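Team,

Forwarding the record for the chain on the shared tracking sheet. I've put the sequence and predicted structure together so nobody has to dig through attachments.
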Amino acid sequence: MADDGSTGAARRATMRDVAVRAAVSKSLVSLAFSSPESVSQERLRRILDAADALGFRPNRVARSLNGARDDFVGILVADSRNPVFAEVVDAARLSLSAGGRLGLMTSAVLPGAGARLDLEAVAMLGDLQPSGLIVVGSVPSMDRVVEAMGSARIVIASARPERLAGAATVRGDDEVGVRLVVDHLAALGHRRIGHVGGAGGRVASGRADAFVAAMRERGLDPELVAESDFSEAAGFRAAHALLDLDGPPTAITAVNDLAAIGVTAALRQRGLTDSVAVTGYDNTYLAALGAVELTSVDPDNATIGHRAAELLLSEENPGEVLVAPTLRIRASSVPVRG
Protein backbone atom coordinates (compact mmCIF):
# COMPACT_ATOMS: atom_id res chain seq x y z
CA MET A 1 0.00 0.00 0.00
CA ALA A 2 1.23 3.52 -0.74
CA ASP A 3 2.16 5.65 2.25
CA ASP A 4 -0.37 8.41 1.67
CA GLY A 5 -2.15 7.95 -1.62
CA SER A 6 -3.52 5.39 -3.99
CA THR A 7 -2.30 4.58 -7.46
CA GLY A 8 -4.43 4.97 -10.55
CA ALA A 9 -3.82 5.09 -14.27
CA ALA A 10 -1.22 7.81 -13.60
CA ARG A 11 1.03 7.64 -10.53
CA ARG A 12 -0.15 9.90 -7.76
CA ALA A 13 2.44 12.03 -5.99
CA THR A 14 3.24 10.84 -2.48
CA MET A 15 4.38 12.48 0.72
CA ARG A 16 7.86 11.10 0.05
CA ASP A 17 7.94 12.86 -3.34
CA VAL A 18 7.11 16.15 -1.65
CA ALA A 19 9.82 15.57 0.97
CA VAL A 20 12.46 14.94 -1.70
CA ARG A 21 11.49 18.03 -3.71
CA ALA A 22 11.38 20.27 -0.62
CA ALA A 23 14.59 18.75 0.80
CA VAL A 24 12.97 17.89 4.14
CA SER A 25 11.99 14.70 5.95
CA LYS A 26 8.78 12.85 5.23
CA SER A 27 7.74 13.30 8.88
CA LEU A 28 8.06 17.07 8.51
CA VAL A 29 5.80 17.00 5.44
CA SER A 30 3.23 15.05 7.46
CA LEU A 31 3.47 17.61 10.27
CA ALA A 32 3.06 20.48 7.79
CA PHE A 33 -0.34 19.16 6.73
CA SER A 34 -1.58 18.08 10.16
CA SER A 35 -0.18 20.94 12.30
CA PRO A 36 1.19 23.68 10.01
CA GLU A 37 1.66 26.04 12.97
CA SER A 38 4.36 23.66 14.24
CA VAL A 39 6.55 24.14 11.14
CA SER A 40 8.76 27.15 10.48
CA GLN A 41 7.43 29.57 7.85
CA GLU A 42 10.39 28.98 5.54
CA ARG A 43 10.09 25.17 5.59
CA LEU A 44 6.29 25.31 5.38
CA ARG A 45 6.55 27.48 2.25
CA ARG A 46 8.97 25.01 0.63
CA ILE A 47 6.70 22.08 1.44
CA LEU A 48 3.55 23.76 0.14
CA ASP A 49 5.31 24.93 -3.01
CA ALA A 50 6.58 21.38 -3.63
CA ALA A 51 3.12 19.91 -3.01
CA ASP A 52 1.55 22.42 -5.40
CA ALA A 53 4.11 21.68 -8.11
CA LEU A 54 3.58 17.93 -7.79
CA GLY A 55 -0.21 18.13 -7.51
CA PHE A 56 -0.06 16.43 -4.11
CA ARG A 57 -2.85 16.48 -1.57
CA PRO A 58 -2.97 14.46 1.67
CA ASN A 59 -5.09 11.30 1.84
CA ARG A 60 -7.83 12.31 4.27
CA VAL A 61 -9.06 8.74 4.74
CA ALA A 62 -5.62 7.51 5.76
CA ARG A 63 -5.23 10.43 8.15
CA SER A 64 -8.63 9.76 9.68
CA LEU A 65 -7.88 6.08 10.21
CA ASN A 66 -4.60 7.05 11.86
CA GLY A 67 -6.47 9.26 14.29
CA ALA A 68 -5.70 12.61 12.60
CA ARG A 69 -9.35 13.51 12.17
CA ASP A 70 -9.74 17.09 13.37
CA ASP A 71 -10.42 18.43 9.87
CA PHE A 72 -13.22 15.98 9.04
CA VAL A 73 -16.93 16.30 9.95
CA GLY A 74 -19.64 13.84 8.98
CA ILE A 75 -23.06 15.00 7.77
CA LEU A 76 -25.88 12.47 8.07
CA VAL A 77 -29.07 13.44 6.19
CA ALA A 78 -32.47 11.90 6.88
CA ASP A 79 -33.62 12.34 3.26
CA SER A 80 -31.17 13.49 0.60
CA ARG A 81 -34.07 14.30 -1.78
CA ASN A 82 -35.67 16.80 0.59
CA PRO A 83 -34.93 20.36 -0.65
CA VAL A 84 -35.20 21.70 2.90
CA PHE A 85 -32.37 19.48 4.06
CA ALA A 86 -30.31 20.28 0.96
CA GLU A 87 -30.35 23.98 1.91
CA VAL A 88 -29.28 23.17 5.47
CA VAL A 89 -26.44 20.92 4.24
CA ASP A 90 -25.16 23.51 1.75
CA ALA A 91 -25.03 26.19 4.43
CA ALA A 92 -23.35 23.86 6.93
CA ARG A 93 -20.68 22.82 4.42
CA LEU A 94 -19.88 26.46 3.64
CA SER A 95 -19.36 27.22 7.32
CA LEU A 96 -17.31 24.07 7.84
CA SER A 97 -15.10 24.95 4.87
CA ALA A 98 -14.58 28.47 6.19
CA GLY A 99 -13.48 26.85 9.46
CA GLY A 100 -10.98 24.59 7.70
CA ARG A 101 -13.09 21.44 7.97
CA LEU A 102 -14.24 18.97 5.33
CA GLY A 103 -17.94 18.02 5.49
CA LEU A 104 -18.65 14.53 4.11
CA MET A 105 -22.34 13.80 3.59
CA THR A 106 -24.25 10.54 3.33
CA SER A 107 -27.93 9.59 3.49
CA ALA A 108 -29.02 8.03 6.77
CA VAL A 109 -32.05 6.15 5.51
CA LEU A 110 -32.38 3.35 2.97
CA PRO A 111 -34.66 4.21 0.02
CA GLY A 112 -38.00 2.46 -0.27
CA ALA A 113 -41.02 1.99 1.94
CA GLY A 114 -40.51 2.79 5.61
CA ALA A 115 -37.74 4.79 7.21
CA ARG A 116 -34.93 2.33 8.03
CA LEU A 117 -31.52 3.43 9.15
CA ASP A 118 -28.77 2.51 6.68
CA LEU A 119 -26.60 0.74 9.24
CA GLU A 120 -23.74 0.06 6.81
CA ALA A 121 -23.46 3.71 5.76
CA VAL A 122 -23.57 4.86 9.38
CA ALA A 123 -20.98 2.27 10.42
CA MET A 124 -18.66 3.29 7.56
CA LEU A 125 -18.95 6.95 8.52
CA GLY A 126 -18.14 6.04 12.11
CA ASP A 127 -15.13 3.97 11.00
CA LEU A 128 -13.67 7.11 9.42
CA GLN A 129 -13.61 8.67 12.90
CA PRO A 130 -15.02 12.14 12.20
CA SER A 131 -14.32 14.79 14.83
CA GLY A 132 -18.01 15.67 14.78
CA LEU A 133 -21.34 14.82 13.17
CA ILE A 134 -24.20 17.02 11.97
CA VAL A 135 -27.49 15.11 11.72
CA VAL A 136 -29.95 16.86 9.39
CA GLY A 137 -33.60 15.87 9.79
CA SER A 138 -35.29 13.17 11.85
CA VAL A 139 -33.14 10.04 11.67
CA PRO A 140 -34.52 6.74 13.00
CA SER A 141 -32.61 4.70 15.59
CA MET A 142 -30.48 7.61 16.78
CA ASP A 143 -29.09 5.36 19.52
CA ARG A 144 -27.35 3.32 16.80
CA VAL A 145 -25.94 6.51 15.27
CA VAL A 146 -24.56 7.66 18.63
CA GLU A 147 -23.02 4.23 19.18
CA ALA A 148 -21.32 4.24 15.75
CA MET A 149 -19.84 7.72 16.23
CA GLY A 150 -18.01 6.93 19.43
CA SER A 151 -16.71 10.13 21.03
CA ALA A 152 -17.59 12.38 18.06
CA ARG A 153 -19.55 15.48 18.99
CA ILE A 154 -23.11 15.54 17.55
CA VAL A 155 -25.30 18.49 16.53
CA ILE A 156 -28.88 17.98 15.31
CA ALA A 157 -30.32 20.34 12.66
CA SER A 158 -33.93 20.75 11.45
CA ALA A 159 -35.41 18.10 13.72
CA ARG A 160 -37.10 17.68 17.09
CA PRO A 161 -35.24 14.66 18.49
CA GLU A 162 -35.62 13.05 21.86
CA ARG A 163 -33.06 14.76 24.05
CA LEU A 164 -29.58 13.34 23.48
CA ALA A 165 -26.97 13.80 26.19
CA GLY A 166 -24.37 16.26 24.94
CA ALA A 167 -26.07 16.96 21.59
CA ALA A 168 -27.11 20.49 20.66
CA THR A 169 -30.16 21.05 18.42
CA VAL A 170 -30.76 23.85 15.91
CA ARG A 171 -34.20 24.14 14.31
CA GLY A 172 -36.77 26.64 13.13
CA ASP A 173 -39.22 27.94 15.73
CA ASP A 174 -42.34 26.14 14.49
CA GLU A 175 -44.57 27.63 17.17
CA VAL A 176 -43.77 31.13 15.89
CA GLY A 177 -44.05 29.99 12.25
CA VAL A 178 -47.51 28.47 12.67
CA ARG A 179 -48.67 31.54 14.59
CA LEU A 180 -47.55 33.73 11.68
CA VAL A 181 -49.74 31.67 9.34
CA VAL A 182 -52.81 31.73 11.58
CA ASP A 183 -52.46 35.48 12.20
CA HIS A 184 -52.10 36.11 8.46
CA LEU A 185 -55.20 34.09 7.57
CA ALA A 186 -57.24 35.64 10.39
CA ALA A 187 -56.27 39.10 9.11
CA LEU A 188 -57.71 38.07 5.73
CA GLY A 189 -61.05 37.37 7.44
CA HIS A 190 -60.79 33.61 7.84
CA ARG A 191 -62.34 32.11 10.96
CA ARG A 192 -62.77 28.47 9.94
CA ILE A 193 -59.15 27.50 9.41
CA GLY A 194 -58.13 23.85 8.99
CA HIS A 195 -54.84 22.04 9.27
CA VAL A 196 -53.54 18.96 7.45
CA GLY A 197 -50.65 17.32 9.28
CA GLY A 198 -49.77 15.69 12.56
CA ALA A 199 -48.45 12.41 11.12
CA GLY A 200 -44.89 11.49 10.18
CA GLY A 201 -42.88 12.28 13.29
CA ARG A 202 -42.20 14.86 15.97
CA VAL A 203 -41.94 17.81 13.55
CA ALA A 204 -45.41 17.10 12.14
CA SER A 205 -46.99 16.56 15.55
CA GLY A 206 -45.27 19.67 16.88
CA ARG A 207 -46.65 21.82 14.07
CA ALA A 208 -50.13 20.38 14.61
CA ASP A 209 -49.92 21.20 18.33
CA ALA A 210 -48.74 24.71 17.45
CA PHE A 211 -51.75 25.13 15.15
CA VAL A 212 -54.18 24.15 17.90
CA ALA A 213 -52.49 26.53 20.35
CA ALA A 214 -52.49 29.44 17.86
CA MET A 215 -56.16 28.95 17.06
CA ARG A 216 -57.10 28.88 20.74
CA GLU A 217 -55.12 32.07 21.35
CA ARG A 218 -57.38 33.80 18.82
CA GLY A 219 -60.57 32.22 20.14
CA LEU A 220 -61.02 30.17 16.95
CA ASP A 221 -62.13 26.55 16.58
CA PRO A 222 -58.98 24.38 16.72
CA GLU A 223 -60.71 21.11 15.83
CA LEU A 224 -60.49 21.28 12.02
CA VAL A 225 -57.46 18.98 11.77
CA ALA A 226 -57.11 16.09 9.29
CA GLU A 227 -54.19 13.68 9.56
CA SER A 228 -51.48 13.97 6.93
CA ASP A 229 -47.79 13.24 6.66
CA PHE A 230 -45.38 15.27 4.51
CA SER A 231 -46.47 13.79 1.16
CA GLU A 232 -48.60 15.29 -1.59
CA ALA A 233 -50.93 12.25 -1.61
CA ALA A 234 -51.60 12.53 2.12
CA GLY A 235 -52.30 16.27 1.80
CA PHE A 236 -54.74 15.54 -1.02
CA ARG A 237 -56.67 12.98 1.05
CA ALA A 238 -56.70 15.12 4.18
CA ALA A 239 -58.01 18.15 2.26
CA HIS A 240 -60.93 16.13 0.91
CA ALA A 241 -61.73 14.98 4.46
CA LEU A 242 -61.91 18.61 5.63
CA LEU A 243 -63.93 19.73 2.62
CA ASP A 244 -66.48 16.96 3.24
CA LEU A 245 -67.37 18.41 6.66
CA ASP A 246 -70.74 20.11 7.16
CA GLY A 247 -68.89 23.32 7.91
CA PRO A 248 -65.73 23.10 5.76
CA PRO A 249 -62.81 25.47 6.35
CA THR A 250 -62.29 28.59 4.23
CA ALA A 251 -58.52 28.25 4.68
CA ILE A 252 -56.24 25.23 5.05
CA THR A 253 -52.74 25.23 6.51
CA ALA A 254 -50.43 22.32 5.67
CA VAL A 255 -47.54 20.69 7.53
CA ASN A 256 -45.20 21.38 4.59
CA ASP A 257 -45.19 22.62 1.00
CA LEU A 258 -45.62 19.21 -0.59
CA ALA A 259 -48.73 18.42 1.46
CA ALA A 260 -50.01 21.92 0.59
CA ILE A 261 -49.66 21.09 -3.11
CA GLY A 262 -51.84 18.04 -2.45
CA VAL A 263 -54.38 20.34 -0.79
CA THR A 264 -54.31 22.62 -3.84
CA ALA A 265 -54.95 19.64 -6.12
CA ALA A 266 -58.00 18.69 -4.05
CA LEU A 267 -59.33 22.26 -4.25
CA ARG A 268 -58.76 22.34 -7.99
CA GLN A 269 -60.71 19.12 -8.36
CA ARG A 270 -63.66 20.75 -6.59
CA GLY A 271 -63.34 24.14 -8.27
CA LEU A 272 -62.42 25.91 -5.03
CA THR A 273 -58.94 27.28 -5.72
CA ASP A 274 -60.20 30.89 -5.75
CA SER A 275 -62.28 30.61 -2.60
CA VAL A 276 -60.21 28.55 -0.13
CA ALA A 277 -56.83 29.84 1.06
CA VAL A 278 -53.85 27.46 1.30
CA THR A 279 -50.54 27.83 3.11
CA GLY A 280 -47.49 25.59 3.29
CA TYR A 281 -44.39 25.34 5.42
CA ASP A 282 -40.63 25.34 4.67
CA ASN A 283 -40.72 27.75 1.69
CA THR A 284 -39.11 25.24 -0.69
CA TYR A 285 -38.51 26.04 -4.35
CA LEU A 286 -41.92 24.46 -5.05
CA ALA A 287 -43.70 27.28 -3.23
CA ALA A 288 -42.22 29.94 -5.50
CA LEU A 289 -43.11 28.22 -8.79
CA GLY A 290 -45.35 30.37 -10.96
CA ALA A 291 -47.98 27.64 -11.24
CA VAL A 292 -48.09 27.23 -7.46
CA GLU A 293 -47.55 30.67 -5.82
CA LEU A 294 -47.86 29.18 -2.34
CA THR A 295 -47.77 31.26 0.82
CA SER A 296 -45.29 29.46 3.03
CA VAL A 297 -43.30 29.79 6.25
CA ASP A 298 -39.58 30.26 5.62
CA PRO A 299 -37.68 28.61 8.52
CA ASP A 300 -34.39 30.20 7.37
CA ASN A 301 -32.61 26.96 6.49
CA ALA A 302 -29.36 28.78 5.69
CA THR A 303 -29.13 30.14 9.23
CA ILE A 304 -29.98 26.71 10.66
CA GLY A 305 -27.15 25.10 8.67
CA HIS A 306 -24.61 27.83 9.47
CA ARG A 307 -25.50 27.80 13.17
CA ALA A 308 -25.26 24.00 13.38
CA ALA A 309 -21.76 24.10 11.87
CA GLU A 310 -20.72 26.98 14.14
CA LEU A 311 -21.81 25.05 17.22
CA LEU A 312 -19.83 22.02 16.09
CA LEU A 313 -16.71 24.08 15.44
CA SER A 314 -16.94 26.04 18.69
CA GLU A 315 -17.86 23.06 20.87
CA GLU A 316 -20.45 25.32 22.46
CA ASN A 317 -23.61 23.54 23.65
CA PRO A 318 -26.54 25.87 24.34
CA GLY A 319 -29.02 22.96 24.27
CA GLU A 320 -31.75 23.87 21.77
CA VAL A 321 -31.36 26.87 19.45
CA LEU A 322 -34.53 28.18 17.82
CA VAL A 323 -34.20 30.20 14.59
CA ALA A 324 -36.90 32.79 13.92
CA PRO A 325 -38.96 32.11 10.75
CA THR A 326 -40.66 34.55 8.40
CA LEU A 327 -43.81 34.29 6.28
CA ARG A 328 -43.53 34.52 2.50
CA ILE A 329 -46.94 35.69 1.25
CA ARG A 330 -48.03 34.65 -2.23
CA ALA A 331 -51.23 34.28 -4.22
CA SER A 332 -52.49 31.08 -2.56
CA SER A 333 -53.67 32.81 0.62
CA VAL A 334 -56.83 34.40 -0.78
CA PRO A 335 -59.10 36.54 1.45
CA VAL A 336 -62.32 35.07 2.79
CA ARG A 337 -65.32 35.50 0.52
CA GLY A 338 -68.50 37.22 1.58
